[in-house]
Amino acid sequence: MTDTAEFLIIGGGLEGLAIAWSLAERGATDILVLERATLCSGMTGNSSGVVRCHYGAPSLAAMSWWSVPFFENAREILGDDLGFSQCGYVVGVGADNLEPLRANVVMQRALGIEVDFIGPGEMAELWPGLRTDDFAGMAYEPRGGRGEAYLTGMGFAAAARQRGVRIRQQAKVVKLLTDAGRVIGAQLADGTEVHAGTVVLAAGPWTPELAATAGVEVEVKAQRAQLILIDQGEPLGPVPVLSDLASLQYLCREPNGEVLAGNSDHAAPEYLDPDDFVNRADAHAVDKVIAKLGHRLPHMPDPRVTGSYVGAYDVTPDYNPIIGPAPVPGLFLATGFSGHGFKISPAVGRLVADLLLHGRTELPDVDPADFRYERFAEGKPLLSPHPYRGAGEMR
Ligand SMILES: Cc1cc2nc3c(=O)[nH]c(=O)nc-3n(C[C@H](O)[C@H](O)[C@H](O)COP(=O)(O)OP(=O)(O)OC[C@H]3O[C@@H](n4cnc5c(N)ncnc54)[C@H](O)[C@@H]3O)c2cc1C
């Protein structure tokens, strides 16, 4: 059996669904999404959902900023509430990272991003009890916050279906089909084929194995992320998301008042098999979080760890996504989101739709060439001009 589509999207995660909706919203009609399991059952389901514009690479900061009004107005745009909580976002740095903080904020302001330096007094109002004496500088984005990646993906899916996008679940692709040096579609595990004008590969950490079936090497690895939940002994009030670059951790308030603690120290990354990993943090990670959290929140009344889980960041060598044509005609890549993919997902959809339909984008301050596949082979990775010492390239 053979099916056809003008645009075949492989991967029903947040990015594939954002792309499907955006293509339909921009006027494309014949779109099919194939998902091997159920929608958003990949790494989207593990996302911390942080929304911030604090990036060193201007294109990435601009994509985040473009996405903020989308989250704010999701009900009007997609017809559904995506669970975005605009609690704000703060980044705090030690003395060794004050210069990069200043330079990044200057760049972000030039892009129009609403961000201000704040002092310990303002921070104490935003997050009572938070220790700030080792922060030499803090920057606050009042329009940042935290969303729900699963709800967002499902919101894109529902809106895409309303615009005529076909979505098939339990439809595992086993290989890309090629003809005369061009990708022409995909073969599914049940033997059926889909022939397509363009194949968009948005399969998160599973992208390399699928791309390899068309002879394309994609430099994406699955980096282990361990997340830990803590009950302070009393519910945490509405506080901003905190990137604590002095202790190299990030903290968010869970809807039930617990604290979600994630690691921002990427000096010694560990990799995993996205199909076979232990879905809980190890004792070493838990011990580190307890020490760091005890330092940052010294007055927790009766803290205890309530749970943990593990996800995989699909990381590229420069910790920035690959969005653009593959070196084989007919194949377009949207992968390697390296822990940034939630906050930029609305802009990713728009960027890919723009490039596929018009060959250029009108997203302000976004240079699509920044995300090109070829940059690694060219030795021109997308790096922040003002990186944070100790924080790796994820900023
Ligand atoms: C622990 C963690 C925390 C994060 N926190 C944040 C954050 O705070 N802020 C932020 O902006 N971003 C964050 N991210 C990143 C963001 O969540 C991801 O970039 C985004 O959800 C990835 O979406 P995706 O569609 O690219 O990948 P996925 O959600 O992994 O989707 C890929 C889909 O492809 C499907 N698939 C795979 N192989 C096949 C096949 N052969 N055939 C058909 N389908 C296939 C999979 O089943 C999966 O559903 C985080 C990520 C993780 C892991």
Q: Please give the radius of gyration in angstroms.
A: 21 Å
Q: What is the helix fraction of residues, given as a range?
A: 25-40%
Number of helices: 9
Mean pLDDT: 97
Largest β sheet strand count, sense and barrel closure: 8 strands, mixed
Bound molecules: flavin-adenine dinucleotide
Order of helices and strands: EHEEHHEHEHEEHEEEEHEEEEHEEEH
DSSP strand (E) fraction?
25-35%
Word description of this protein:
It is a single chain. This protein is α/β, with parallel strands linked by helices and 395 residues long. Strands 1, 2, 8, 9, 10, 11, 17 and 18 form an eight-stranded mixed β-sheet that branches. Strands 5-6-4-13-14-15-12-16 form an eight-stranded mixed β-sheet, sandwiched between helices. The mean pLDDT is 97. α1 (14-25) links the parallel β1 (2-10) and β2 (31-34). The chain has nine helices and 18 strands. α1 (14-25) crosses α9 and α2 packs across α9. The N and C termini lie far apart (46 Å). It binds flavin-adenine dinucleotide (FAD). Residues 10-16, 34-37, 41-44, 46-50, 149, 172-173, 202-204, 206, 210, 225, 227, 311-313, 337, 339-343 line the site of flavin-adenine dinucleotide.
